[in-house]
Structure formats: C-alpha cells, structure tokens
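Need the bound structure for flavin mononucleotide, inputs here:
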Amino acid sequence: MPQQSFSPLTIGPHVVQPPVVLAPMAGITNAPFRTLCREFSGGKGLFVSEMITTRALVERNEKTMQLIHFDETEKPRSIQLYGVDPATVGKAVRMIAEEDLADHIDLNFGCPVPKVTRKGGGSALPYKRNLLRAILREAVSGAGDLPVTMKMRKGIDDDHITYLDAGRIAVEEGVTAIALHGRTAAQHYGGTADWSAIARLKEHVPEIPVLGNGDIWSADDAVRMMRETGCDGVVVGRGCLGRPWLFGDLVSSFESSGGPEGVQQPAAPSLREVAEVMVRHATLLGEWIGDEARGVIDFRKHVAWYLKGFAVGSEMRKRLAITSSLAELRAGLDELDLDQSWPVGADGPRGRTSGNNRVVLPDGWLKDPYDCAGVSEEAELDTSGG
Ligand SMILES: Cc1cc2nc3c(=O)[nH]c(=O)nc-3n(C[C@H](O)[C@H](O)[C@H](O)COP(=O)(O)O)c2cc1C
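Answer from helper R.:
Posting the output first, comments after.
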C-alpha cells in the first residue's frame, strides 16, 4: 500500500504537527491534565482548555480566572469559550487578546445538555443562522490576530441538521478552522459518530481546516478517521480519560514512516505504571489548585477510568475514589496487585456513552432558522458538555 503522509495542521500562525488535538472537556482538560497529555506526546499536538463561559470571564469570576491559568510551558495556549450573546462573546475575546490570556480561541457550539438547549444555547444555537453569524463576527473582529475556531455537532437531530450551513457561515465570518463532532445533540454520546459528515464538511468548506471528532479510542482510529474523511486533524476526547498516554500513541503513529502506514504498538502500561501516572495526575491537580487535599478530591472522578479493566475489587475501587490525600491514594494503590499487565478490555469506549431521547428547546425555536432573536443569557449557565 502506498505511504500517505499527513500535512501539518495550521491554525492561524500555529502549526500543529502531528495534527492531533485534545478535545475540550469541562472538569477534565485543566492545566494538569493538559500537562500530563503533553508529557506523553513530547509536547506535540494542541491541547484545548475546558470550556469557559464568556459572561463569567468578562465578570472576572474568581473560579474562571483560575480555570484560564495555563502552565508557562504551554504553547500555544488554547482556550475554549462558550457564549450566546454576541456582545459578551466580543468582550470576552477582546479581553483575551488585549490581556494576552491565550494564543487561540475555540468557540463551543456543541453542548447538548438540556439546561442549555432549553434556552437556545449550546448545540441548539447554530440552528439560528443569524445569531451564529453575529457571534462569530464579534469573536473574529475582537480577536485581532488570534485565530478563532469553532466546535460543533451535526445539528439538533436528524431532521434539523445544521453543520453545513454553520460551516459556510464560519468561513464567511473568518473562522480559522472547524471541529465537527459527528453526532447530533439528540444523540448526546450514544450510537456511533458519523464520520461521513466530517468528510462532507471537508468537501463543503475546502477553504479552511476541518477537524474530525468522535469515537477515536486508539491511534489506529485517528489514522483511520484521517484516511476515511480527508479531515485535516483529529480531536480526541473520551479516549484520553484515564489514558493520557494515548497522546504518545497518536504522535508516534502519525510520525512513524511519515504517515499512517506504520501504526506503532499502542502503549500498554502495567498497573504499576498506571498507578504512577495516577499519583502524578493527583499531584499536579493539588499543585494547580494550591491545596493537596482538594487536588486529590478533584482526582477522584478519574480513578475508575484509570482502573478500567484491571482486576481491582469493588471495595478497593470505592476506597480509592474517596481518598483525600496523596499518602492515602498511594497507600491504597500499593495494596493492589501492581504486576498486572494492561487489560485488553480497557481499550475501546469509555466515559459517557448514553444517548438522549429528546432535545429540549425554547418554544417555537424550530419555526424560523433565520429570525434575528437573541438568546437569553440564562443559556450561559456554568455547565459542562459538548
Ligand atoms: C466529560 C466531558 C466534558 C466535555 N466538555 C466539553 C466542553 O467543555 N466543550 C466542548 O466543546 N466539548 C466538550 N465535550 C465533548 C468533547 O469535546 C467531544 O466532542 C466528545 O466527547 C466527542 O469526542 P470523543 O468521542 O473523542 O469523546 C465534553 C465531553 C465529555 C465526555
């Protein structure tokens, strides 16, 4: 088979080589997790912050100011914003540009959670073409030289697909690149991501890079997505939960033989090695928060992901998920049979996998995709998701 090498991904002035991106994940992709992934990737790739709401940012909410803190070694600094009001988005973007808070801004239009879509925010918003356009216009003009990208889903549901229109609007408004999660809001995280939509978007907006997202669980999957869709880069989310070393796999697969033909053996850490990463992750969180106990408590949500597939009894799993100090975490881990090798069952889907039955929307939302009504800022609740 002929070798096929992938071009570097360019996001404005930033060259991302190989073209692999850590998906923004609220509550997960904070500076410590990004650092961990970067350590495994040898500094290659792009690592996007968790979602920051524009209103909280312009109000300089204390927690938000902490969330936008980047490690000094992070380059480029990628921040994801979520907003529904063009003026507030514009203000937030200008603040980032003027105060040099980041090097790249990604806008989130993919959040499927009912409390956001109910108000017309998140993945409901691109249905209102004019509002989407107004937000993108404010963002791009406020950002100055900083590249602005957007991340979205295919649409609200199969009867209300928006990604092609949204992609065209993005190009017209000067957005630098688009990431598409190949699911509708109605699908939430259920079913499988539709990679053919990524290919269609690529054909539809040849002017700018298209990044594919959804169901990349291994470096093989990433390479396959690039080949099958012709996308310019991949965005990897849940596959990294409890597996930050996936970034090492991604980089070596893309780099081997200058392309996708020589996919390397995936990392298969023993439980001892996984335990070391767990302690490192919890330590970084504590340092970042400035409080060891709070760091370990924040780490609790990651425990089940790291231990997935290993023979660890349910009592021990529970115990490890309620630790409050590094010493307690270490002591618990030391009691495990650390010589276990990487379990086959740990590969494949992890994290959220459930579907959603119905997308809750404001009354009359679907009547007119082009009306110029705005969205209440209540749609900008501090919430997670994409
Ligand atoms: C816990 C969690 C939090 C997420 N938070 C965000 C977010 O803040 N912004 C966003 O654009 N997407 C968010 N997403 C969606 C992911 O970025 C990604 O689009 C989705 O998980 C599909 O990619 P995957 O199959 O590689 O996981 C989140 C996903 C998860 C599982």
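Comments: The longest strand covers residues 148-157. The chain has a mean pLDDT of 93.
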